[in-house]
Amino acid sequence: MDTSNTAAPLHILHLEDSAHDHRLVCRALDKTRFNYTITRVESLAEFSELAGSESVDLILADYRLPGFTAIDAWSALGAPGSRPPFILLSGAIGEAAAVSAIHLGIADYLHKDDLSRLERVILRTLEVHRTQRAKEKADRELAISERRLSELTGYLQTAVERERASIAREIHDDIGGSLAAAKLDLAWLQRHSSDPSMQAHMHAATDMLQHALGASQRIMMSLRPSILDQGLFAAVQWLASSFERRTGIKTILRANSEVLCPEKSVQLTAYRTAQEALTNISKYAQCSLVQIEISDAEDVLTMEISDNGIGISETEMQKPEAFGIRGLHERAKTVGGWLDVSTRQGVGTSVILSVPLAATEQLSAEAQFK
Ligand SMILES: Nc1ncnc2c1ncn2[C@@H]1O[C@H](COP(=O)(O)OP(=O)(O)OP(=O)(O)O)[C@@H](O)[C@H]1O
Ligand SMILES: [Mg+2]
User: How many Å apart are CA 166 and CA 205, to the nearest integer?
Assistant: First the structure.
């Protein structure tokens, strides 16, 4: 803040019951470089009324006044972020009172006999105040931007899940339907043909169709896991057994209940978390054992996927091009939960999803897939 004589005046509110002491302060201020205005108030009511106005740049306050102290005046100022800088300018108040005042957020304390330091103390207080305000503003902006980013992630994930579900429906209705009809026709032809070479071609074509049907079912399952209709346990069990079959890594699944049917959005979050964690294990962990534990005890869904592999280093965790784990953190937030990744090199990695189930009831309107 520019405080030179040419700058806009510094509006000072002086809480002081002694007219003599006020005059001393004015004299000390006259010797400084400040272009200032000063208003003296004596009562708490007057103080509260004037201190709340936008135009006060600085408060100088005596500690003990008739019937109240500067601490009462400080408390009357309202929300911490909107308080003007506040300096205690008083006779001896004792070290304990000075420390507790500064602890409360009062910027500084200056003894009345030490007014020669007033300029320095004011300059420092204004500078600290300006820096704090700038930091609070930056923190607020950061919080807003983080919230927006989180909302956008939630929206994108919902959009992606919807799109996946719609592609899965198209594959089911168009491709699946046509393949099944072609298979029926081939079967009819096979029944009505006795030519061995025709039979051989039709047999090969039926095999190809069967293969295409299997592929379209696999694609549908990864696009929209219809297995979730049977509950989270069944869906994760299906993931775990296909993972074990594909990789040969022993996979153990435990759950406190085989029902586990929280909100659809929570089920899908848990399913996608298990899917990404297992994909990561198959790509990087080099492990021999995977354990998955699911529980909905105490109204919190927890799912832990652990491996006994090589672990993740700090650099790997921060890879700029890696979005899997980062996406899981964001996805967990969209259902009111959080993700923890604990890892030790050479010992293994655990990915833990926690979602308080009561909180997700409020978010249920935002169902992520139908
Ligand atoms: N279970 C694990 N064991 C060992 N390393 C792992 C494990 N899971 C993840 N990592 C390491 O952490 C990094 C970050 O994983 P993340 O899933 O975020 O990204 P990615 O798999 O590399 O890419 P993406 O998931 O975006 O396709 C991986 O590149 C890998 O080096
Ligand atoms: Mg990954």
Answer: 29
